[in-house]
Write a structure and sequence with these properties.
- The structure is a homodimer.
- Chain A is mainly α and about 190 residues long.
- Helices cover about 75% and strands about 0% of the residues of chain A.
- Chain A is built from 9 helices and no strands.
- The longest helix of chain A has 27 residues.
- Chains A and B meet through α6, α7, α8 and α9 of A and α6, α7, α8 and α9 of B.
């Protein structure tokens, strides 16, 4: 494997472990062992655990961004329906995962934002990118008269994203999908219903 | 100091440090040093770091519960106004704190729920107690005709609490109070507006 292949493998394996166990709670050696990379070679690929963590956020953003775009970049005749389908698929994913782990960006923001300014900025960039995709979808919904025209797509997109993050956090504590169902009902049968 | 005094001091000092730095990222020795308790004596007070962490959640719940009760137990003629005042005070608190730290229960749930079932249960008990206080306030609001009578106080209380948790998480990432202001607007000028 090339250096880039190995780096990509460390990120893919590390993403899974950090998503399940948290960033501060995951050791570098554990990731290298799981990736089948010789112990002690970590610093050949990343300058520090922090540099690895920042690269992990980029990795999560690129996965999530692709998934969001496949649903929302061309939302079709009913943008609100496209948005609901996107969240419904995420709900099915978390049900399958046993209502664990939550949002990888939310988790790392929670752990690291106050400790390291580079993580705070990186996490906020990630949230902003997700929010922009929701915002464009809501703008499309407003243009075709699907939502109340007085609704501000920018603030509404932030509220939807932030409320989803909170629902995922509560899902982890409850060990149940109920918080996501309540989110779905309040957002799609309430806030975005015309 | 008696054993109970010292234990209470370790909890009060530990609560502040864990709130700022996270549970997995805080060492026992750091807490003992800050509390002025001799190194090595931790296990005289707590069986393990986990037992300490679970006691911390109880500590946070008792603080937050008292604060919530002072606003919500007897909400007066306008329960929605009482609820808004409660969140407005929290918003002022976080503005004062530089938009850092977030919800101590949310943080520990995020870090520990998947790693340790006792933490998951303890965090969910804490969330449930907060939710019940919001629910009783919404029931009072419904009785005096302040909110739409078709609104389910139980699900609405969960949604309000979870969305607040998400807003606090985003506040940490953004380093700005904006997510809390959007929460306030969407909940009190939207969802709970009649």
């Amino acid at each position: 494997m090339t250096k880039e292949d190995t780096k990509a493998k460390i990120l893919a394996v590390g993403a899974q472990i950090v998503h399940e166990k948290g960033f501060n709670n995951t050791g570098i050696q554990e990731i290298l062992s799981a990736a089948g990379v010789p112990k002690g070679s970590f610093y050949f690929y990343f300058k520090s655990k922090d540099e690895f963590g920042l690269a992990l956020v980029d990795y999560f953003v690129s996965l999530m961004g692709g998934w969001m775009d496949s649903h929302l970049a061309d939302p079709g005749p009913s943008p609100v329906k496209a948005l609901k389908n996107f969240f419904d698929e995420l709900m099915a994913y978390f049900l399958e995962k046993g209502c664990k782990a939550g949002c990888p960006v939310g988790n790392i923001a929670q752990e690291m934002a106050d400790l390291n300014e580079a993580f705070r900025e990186k996490a906020e960039q990630a949230f902003t990118q997700m929010k922009q995709r929701i915002k464009r979808c809501l703008e499309a919904a407003r243009e075709c008269g699907e939502i109340d025209p007085v609704m501000d797509p920018d603030e509404t997109a932030d509220f939807v994203l932030n409320s989803w993050e909170g629902a995922l956090l509560r899902m982890k504590a409850q060990g149940d999908i109920r918080p996501l169902r309540i989110f779905d009902k309040m957002i799609f049968d309430g806030l975005l219903k015309r």
